[in-house]
Amino acid sequence: MTSNREIHLASRPQGWPTEDTFRLVETEVPTPGPGQIVVRNQYMSVDPYMRGRMNDVKSYVPPFALDAPLDGAAIGEVVASEAADVAVGTTVLHGLGWREYALLDAAAARPVDPSIAPVSAYLSVLGMTGLTAYAGLLEVAAMKPGETVFVSAAAGAVGSLVGQIARLKGAGRVIGSAGSPAKVERLRALGFDAAFDYHDGVRESLREAAPDGVDVYFDNVGGDHLEAAISAMNLHGRAAICGMIGQYNATEPPAAPRNLALVIGKRLTLRGFLVNDHNDVRAAFVRDVSGWLRDGTLSYDETIVDGIENAPAAFLGLLRGDNLGKMLVRV
Q: How many angstroms separate the CA atoms of 331 and 323, rounded?
């Protein structure tokens, strides 16, 4: 193959991105230099944080460049190598998605064993997604056995794992919100004690699902969900703030939460976090999650869209909540 297709950022969106935000560009397959490899991507991840990188603002990660390929987690097979320690045929995890072929330094790729699990799992339950759920719940929110845990966007890639890990680690009650009746049923099948469709009213539904209050809130949404959680949280409750997808496309400041003063009297802890700050728990994460996968006590969902040309549609679908579990593109 000599042809390589990439998705470039064509413009910076104001509010919701559209298909015109992206451009499909054809280039040549790159040739590796000393110490480099070329990877034929098999799967790539689309993630909510990517919306923030489309804005030209200072953040914890640089913005995407205009008229250049986007990037993000991907996994694939090495098809050319000028690195002595990475052979052709090796399956590697790396950060140059949104393209069919990726050229990178071998040191920036992590070899994985495709015989242990489907390769897509390294982008979901065994990858950054799984570690985010594990570290956020157990390290950031410091969940204790017997506590009540509330998870927003609980049918998504991170949220669905948070709820299951909470149950496996001894939570007294696990509650999730989702965006459709079908997703609510899926949460119940995954072992959530209660689940509700947020369209039915977050505050009222949470009050009914957690009559004795909430000890831990895992926030993927922000806005009205965070406001409802603050109202429902018990003394010394903790919230792990992972994401606020409900606000990523907003053009006006959010109306909620309007009850932040409750943080004082309830002595609440609201703590934002980035998964890269918690690599110290990776060994425990791999041990626990691989064991749960082997014995069938942990499940994970994937929504797979085929074709690099459909990566923008997959990303837009993610923002709309079309996915169940992890949204992936099979390149």
A: 17
**Six-digit token pair at 42?**
């098999």
Short-list 1, 6, 2, CA closest to 100:
6
Rounded to the nearest 10 degrees, the angle between the axes of helix 128-135 and helix 282-295 is 100
In 106-248, the DSSP E strands lie at 110-111, 148-151, 173-178, 194-197, 214-219, 233-241
Residues 137 and 150 sit within 8 Å (Cβ to Cβ): no
Nearest-angstrom CA–CA distance, 238 and 244: 17
pTM (2 d.p.)? 0.92
Print the SS3 string covering 215-273. EEEEECCCHHHHHHHHHHEEEEEEEEECCCHHHCCCCCCCCCCCCCCHHHHCCCEEEEC
Q: Is residue 62 within 8 Å of residue 122, measured between CB atoms?
A: no
| pLDDT classification of 59: cutoffs 50, 70, 90 | confident
CA dihedral (264, 224, 159, 301) in degrees, to 10, reads: 180
Give the Cα separation of 183 and 181 in Å (integer): 5
Determine the Cα–Cα distance for residues 212 and 234; give it in Å rounded to an integer. 8
pLDDT, tens only, 27-56: 999 999 999 999 999 999 999 999 999 999
How far apart, in whole angstroms, are the C-alpha atoms of residue 180 and residue 146? 28
Tokens coding 275: 């998964």
Read off the tokens for 180.
């459709």
